[in-house]
Amino acid sequence: MTTNRGLTAIRRPADLRGLGTEELTSLAAEIRGFLIKAVSRTGGHLGPNLGVVELTIALHRVFDSPRDTVIWDTGHQAYVHKLLTGRHDGWDRLKKTGGLSGYPSRAESEHDHVESSHASSSLSWADGVARANELAGRDRHVVAVIGDGALTGGMAWEALNNIAAGSDRNVVVVVNDNGRSYSPTIGGLADRLASLRLQPGYERILEAGKRTVQGTPVVGPALYAGLHAIKAGVKDAVSPQELFGDLGLKYFGPVDGHDIAQVESAMRRAKRFGGPVIVHAVTRKGNGYPPAENDDAEQMHSPAAFDPATGEPTGTPSTGWTDIFAEEVVELGSRRSDVVAITAAMLGPTGLAPFAAAFPDRLIDVGIAEQHALTTAAGLSRAGMHPVVALYSTFLNRGFDQLLMDVGLHSERLTLMLDRSGVTGSDGPSHNGMWDLSLLGIVPGMRVAAPRDEETLREEFREAVAVTDGPTALRYPKGAVVSSVPAVRRLDGPAGVDVLHEPSDRRAQVLMVCVGAFGTLGVAAAERLTDQGIDVTVVDPRWVLPVPRELLTLAADHQLLVTVSDCGTHGGFGSALSDALRASDIDVRQRDLALPQEYLEHGSRDDVLARTGLTVQDVARRVTEWAAASAPTVPELDAHRAVRGS
To answer: Which residues does the annotated region (Disordered) include (predicted)?
Structure first.
């Protein structure tokens, strides 16, 4: 009989297989304590991981990782997996520079096959890996753990349809059914899973007081209606075995996801079956930690640093960009009955919870379905409403076709609020919102604003929702909002370009165009440059796309044009401005300071900006170098101004 070795002795999944029942129970408790302590210091996805402790232990006792491929959907549920695959260090810097990633990371471990941080993709990955195994003659299993709302994404159902066709492929789909993403999972598909819970096995789980959940879908009403006749009056007539059998999928469950023996038994049966199998495990998000269990809104989904004894935040709360939007959209809703707000399973994080409380009939949560969100918004617009669609910038990528062909092509009037634009930092390469301007700039008729502070966020939001002939978007970063970065003056023109800094005679060599929240950085850099004898005009374009005409006119009056933005170098603001200048036959030396066209590793926002040269010191240094290389004599500068008509 093995001795109780504890977590420190678990360096690979095989180390779990000799443990007895008591040791496994003790290990699960130790893992929970470890995660609560670690995440309380750094912040991170606590609730989802507390919900998969026993499930992950059982999985790694049954399957042979990394020979068997394990894919997590979404990857923020993989903390326990990291511990059981030997990653005991780096938790003091979780999601920070030099620490562990908050998601699976191929750079960290051979056990991480897919860096799955956007939801609903795991089943497509699993289908592809299983097909490759079949073609190569490899007798291996692919396990996709999908939950935390990921089954509300349409891509998962496209993949499930294909997985079912491969009757000889060893794909095990573990449905981690906690009924949540950030908030309760919604929709008709969720209702169908709730009906499957009427099975006696689930009733026993309920009677044991293990959970209260609302449901992540297993199959939609329309699909079931096409496969089965209605058996009126019989509650338990729904047979998951028959249902998934008709699809070509074997079904085991539901099982108590916090009972290692139950989950392990179901997984062993699934492994022996040979072919695609569903294992339905019912879990509770935040399980075993009362502050998370009692957090009805989010089950401590992704808290910042907190007191582990109470679950209360330890940091000083600050007003964020999201908070300002939350106030403005409620005020707008009170004035305009045509305003409808849409979220994709991110009600709280995008600031729409107050709107939902005030106007519940005008709040639509589509689940993890950005494509559907955008076309639904187009339909609302077509029928006379003004949708406000609040998304994280990185998730706009998922709905680009709908943005281009449903919203843009039809010139629908709606407003996109793109939270977490630019560098988000801690969630790593998949979550930086650095692609939005490149995508939005492709859409004809799209107008994009980038507020620099609280005042301009309020102002530009009001301007955006007043537009009646096409779509608008606002992009703003993660974190605390600056209350005010005052303008020296506003240029005449429809965009209202703001001058934030200029010499008293308005005869500067350098024009620095700072997008959005970089206005603060630009002013600070200009003050340093002034001390060095370099005169700089700093402007905030406010409406960055299409490029304001008044900005082009101003650029023509300077020797050096520098853009500072938190988007990619290809197709970003600098590219758009360069194209506009060229189209207007304006010749000015331009240099762009932006994010490199690469996937940026995780770290704090400040760390990532420092690594990419977007700090006050770096901007001032680069401008000094460029200005020295192009500085004209005084007569040359006067001649230049005469040619430009100044």
So the answer is: 100-119, 284-320
| Residue 115 annotated to the active site | no
Q: Please tell me whether 386 is known to bind a ligand.
A: no
What is the per-residue pLDDT for 149? 82
* pLDDT attached to residue 23: 97
Determine whether the annotation assigns residue 150 to a binding site: yes
Question: Do 390 and 352 form a contact (C-beta atoms < 8 A)?
Answer: yes
CATH class of 499-629: alpha beta
Place of tokens 């209702």: 191
Dihedral through CA 347, CA 348, CA 350, CA 352, nearest 10?
A: 60
The pLDDT of residue 239: 53
Is 110 annotated for ligand binding?
A: no
Say whether 96 is catalytic. Answer: no
Cβ partners under 8 Å of residue 167, min gap 6: 248, 275, 276
The answer to whether 334 is a known ligand-binding residue is: no
Question: Residue for token digits 């630019």?
Answer: 422
Residue whose entry in the numeric block shows the structure tokens 């076709």: 401
What Å distances lie between residue 19 and 5, 32, 268, 269, 456, CA to CA?
9, 18, 17, 20, 60
Kindly name the residue from 192, 211, 398, 420 that is annotated as catalytic: 398
CATH numeric code, 22-213+238-294 = 3.40.50.970
What is the sign of the dihedral through the CA atoms of 519, 520, 524 and 527?
A: positive
Fold of the CATH domain 321-475: Rossmann fold (3.40.50)
pTM over 0.85? The answer is yes
- Mean per-residue pLDDT pooled into runs of 10, the chain (646 residues): 71 96 97 98 96 98 98 95 96 94 95 90 97 96 91 91 91 89 50 50 42 36 35 38 68 95 97 93 95 92 95 92 98 98 96 98 96 98 99 96 98 98 91 95 98 98 98 97 94 93 93 97 97 97 97 96 94 96 97 95 93 97 92 50 37
Q: Read out DSSP for 99-119?
A: S--SS--TTT-TT------ST
Q: Considering just the CA atoms, what is the radius of gyration of the chain in Å?
A: 27
Catalytic residue (choose from 285, 413, 478, 591): 285
Q: Establish whether 351 is an annotated binding residue.
A: no
* pLDDT confidence of residue 601: 92
> Of the residues 298, 370, 502, 550, which is catalytic?
370
289 is in an annotated binding site: yes
